[in-house]
Amino acid sequence: MSEQAQFKALLPMLVFLLLFIGTGIGLTLCGAEMPFYQLSATVAIIPAIVLALAQGKEGLNRKIAVFLSGAGEINIITMCMIFLLAGGFASVASAIGGVKATVNFGLSLLPPSMILPGLFLIGAFISTAMGTSMGTVAAIAPIAVGVGEQTDIPLTLLLGVVMGGAMFGDNLSMISDTTIAATRTQGCEMKDKFRMNLLIALPAALLTLAFLWYAGSSGQTVRHEDYALIRVAPYLAVLVLALAGVNVFVVLLAGIVFTGAVGMASVEGYTALRWCKDIYGGFAGMNEIMVLSMLVGGLGELMRHHGGIAWLLKRVNGLAARLSARSPVKAGECCISLLVLLANLCTANNTVAIILTGKVAHEITSANGVDRRRSASLLDIFSCVVQGLIPYGAQLLLAGSIARLSPLSIAGNNWYCMALAATAALAVLFGVPRLRAPLPLAGGAADAGPAELTGPAFSSGADRRA
């Protein structure tokens, strides 16, 4: 880090949010059509990047190098590759009629009242098996779009349900990189964190299912159409591979190849050349969110380099010290939750937010007598809540791109993340649940700090989640 902790390093992100979200809200109030598409986020972020480059005393070349290192960070490139493969798979599946066939197949099996709960459960199962919300959104969002075309269910609600199911597994899966980061920084076992996490997340999931069932029980207009079962096969294959825990890159690549083979076998005039053109068309459709993800990554790295994240860590750590006199455990848990929430808002990456805040969270845990299973769960929960609700996060950008919707409108329908935030806040407020035999406060693996998370053990976990 080139400079000491300072608040002004966070100003670029505030400028970006003010321009992007503020413009969208202003145009909404003026009655403009598709208000959040009038100003592209990739343009709105440019003034913020310029401001970040203007900060600091180092030379411009050095600051540009910092920006580029953030834009090319491994998690950012991983997301961009998933964007490309997801775009190619969705494009080919749509071209051969696979999405429509899958939708009609699903609608023929489910009663109208179970469409929304069923979509949530499928997303939850897949994301838990794969450990990735990105792969889940890539696989399920096109189906949700197809359901929206054949029912009167609002498309924003359908995509919000997909997002909720995707974030359920991202938070709980044993092979999710957020789980690996949270348990490594806090020095607890994955199975212990999973049990604690599940006791907080399960009520939110059940509450969400009840809401979704009620939303569908009032009656939905469903238009049933004929379908060719062979065109459903690629999606069934993708779902089976995902549930088997296969790497998301393999899942999407296999989906592209299998879908192309099915198209050439079942669609008259569908050739290998047409298949290649459809893949490229899907790639091209992901250009904007790829560029935005890289720009957000670069901006986040500049803010970290200039001391913005350090300023957050210092302030929240100080708050924990001041509040601990009255109720040390509750104060510690509140500050850990606030810490990762703010870090995720700035970095737009839940894994990075956990890594950046893990060391300070562990210090707060030790100083206030917080159970390390609780601190690991809270880090993971609140980072996933924020990631599922910020319109510039990769998951919402991908969902919005597939559905041609504003990410902000989808976030407003992500009921699961809202319910999870509420149940987690209540868990902190009332000190529940508590597992028996609290872990000792001594550090173990957590004392190593976030710097050690870049080693082979962490990389292998992150690769599985990719």
Automatic annotation (TrEMBL):
InterPro entries given for it?
Na/H_Antiport_NhaC-like_C (IPR018461), NhaC_Na-H+_Antiporter (IPR052180)
UniProt-annotated location(s): Cell membrane
Keyword annotations for this protein, in alphabetical order, are: Antiport, Cell membrane, Membrane, Transmembrane, Transmembrane helix, Transport
Q: How does it sit in the membrane?
A: Multi-pass membrane protein
Give residue ranges for domain Na+/H+ antiporter NhaC-like C-terminal: 77-215
* The keyword Lipoprotein is annotated on this UniProt entry: no
GO MF term list: antiporter activity
Q: Write down a Pfam family by its short name.
A: Na_H_antiporter
Q: Where are the transmembrane segments?
A: 36-54, 74-99, 157-176, 196-215, 235-259, 279-299, 381-403, 415-432
- Keyword Membrane assigned: yes
Q: Which GO terms describe its cellular component?
A: plasma membrane
Coiled-coil features, chain-numbered ranges? none
Q: Which family does it belong to?
A: Belongs to the NhaC Na(+)/H(+) (TC 2.A.35) antiporter family.
* Name of the protein in its database record: Na+/H+ antiporter NhaC family protein
- What is the species listed in this Swiss-Prot or TrEMBL entry? Candidatus Bilophila faecipullorum
